[in-house]
Amino acid sequence: MFKKRYFIWFTVFIYIVLLFITVFIPHQDDRIDNSCTNDICIRFCCKNSVTCNDEFIRSNFNASFIPKFDDYDDNENDTRSFRILYEMPSCDNLIPIEQWEISKYDGIKTGDEHIYEDYCFEDTKVGDEIRWKVLSCSKAKSFFKMETNLILRIISEMTFLAVLLIYVYLNKWKTLDGRIVIMFVSSLASEFFFRQIVFYDDTNNKIMEVITFLMEVASIVSTLLWMSVMIFDIWLNFKNLDSATDGMKRFKFYCAYVFSIIVLQITSLSEAYIFYYRRWLKQLVRVIIDILLFTYLVTICLEIIFLVGTAVKIFLISKATNHVGHAKFEDEKKRFWMCLSAFGIIVMIPFTNIFPLLSPYERNKFLNEITNCFSAFVLFFIFILMDKNIRQRLFHKRSINHERLSSTASSI
């Protein structure tokens, strides 16, 4: 099927380039002071000289503003100290911020934005009480960046939708391999969708955060499991190459297998949410990694085993003479190459998408959108354009419909 093998290497090269840009190229906004990596640095700009001293601030600054590290990690208790900096932000126009929280490391967080130096706490006198409000440099959000990210998100989802519509249009959903591909692409599309909500949602609605997170986990697990089902089904078909059954009965068992594991994952996460509520809210990224790492590693290892076993089977059958030119053998061989390419995409996606979770930088989010869009295009190329049968049937149906419309117009 893949006579032009350079496409696979080109795809791998693009992912390596994106990973290199994300990790190794310095960020323009990387301005964290090294002295603040071991302390909680908080910046103050006082109007009254009486309030601008360490003793007054330590006794009057609201202690609830300071992060409680026991909510993050039990090993970090009392390892950081409260450090006061007297600095004015490097801008002329300062505006007050209503919703914010002090970051665990340095600066403040406002929704999905992280401000390191361009802020300060200003003292205000309300009656006889001194209160502190946050001032930050006025930064107009880039309309171009927002629109570009939105366009890339829409392109990714529309590409997945195009794959699903083509499979339905050509009645591929009536075949076992078509149904597996549809379930796999649907899971990946939903995973992309819910991941964007996790990245960009700043409503601070805890219930919606939990629901979105559970849906994201279910989508990730579903994608991994349907990928393993696809590989296992190809391996099973090569094992029973002479069997005349179409294997449609296996689809029910595949669905039961996938949905049962998803239910177990969601149940365990719900239990963790109920009994470890505070830890859940403060360690969302760590919960994602801890819960999904085991499932990811197990499924990837099983998929590699079945892929290697299938490749060995293809090699042995190719050396024999009784199955050379066998129609089922050739079809399953094409499926194997398609599945192998899709497996490469699934393996690379976590490495290129984990950085936006761990970094506040806009460029990483933009690279995340580019990676998603590129992955969607590659999967469209694999499941649609590289499948000769789908191309022929698709263009054949288009030509028939065009002839019907032409004949109808001429008769009128």
Q: What does this entry look like structurally?
A:
There is one protein chain. With 412 residues, this protein is mainly alpha-helical. It has 2 domains: 34-137, Methuselah ectodomain, domain 2; 141-396, Rhopdopsin 7-helix transmembrane proteins. 63% of the residues lie in helices and 10% in strands. It has 11 helices and 8 strands. It has helices at residues 6-24, 54-60, 143-169, 176-200, 206-239, 250-275, 277-282, 284-319, 327-358, 362-385, 388-411; strands spanning 39-44, 81-86, 94-96, 101-102, 108-110, 113-115, 119-126, 129-137. The strands form 3 sheets. It has a 3-stranded antiparallel beta sheet, with no helix packed on it. Strand 4 and strand 5 (108-110) form a beta hairpin. The radius of gyration is 27 Å and the shape is elongated. The two termini are 45 Å apart. Residues 26-34 and 67-78 have low confidence and may be disordered.
Q: What does this entry show, briefly?
A:
The chain has 412 residues and is mainly alpha-helical. The chain has helices at residues 6-24, 54-60, 143-169, 176-200, 206-239, 250-275, 277-282, 284-319, 327-358, 362-385, 388-411, and strands at residues 39-44, 81-86, 94-96, 101-102, 108-110, 113-115, 119-126, 129-137.
Which key phrases capture this entry?
single chain, 412 residues, mainly alpha, Methuselah ectodomain, domain 2, Rhopdopsin 7-helix transmembrane proteins, 2 domains, three-stranded antiparallel β-sheet, elongated
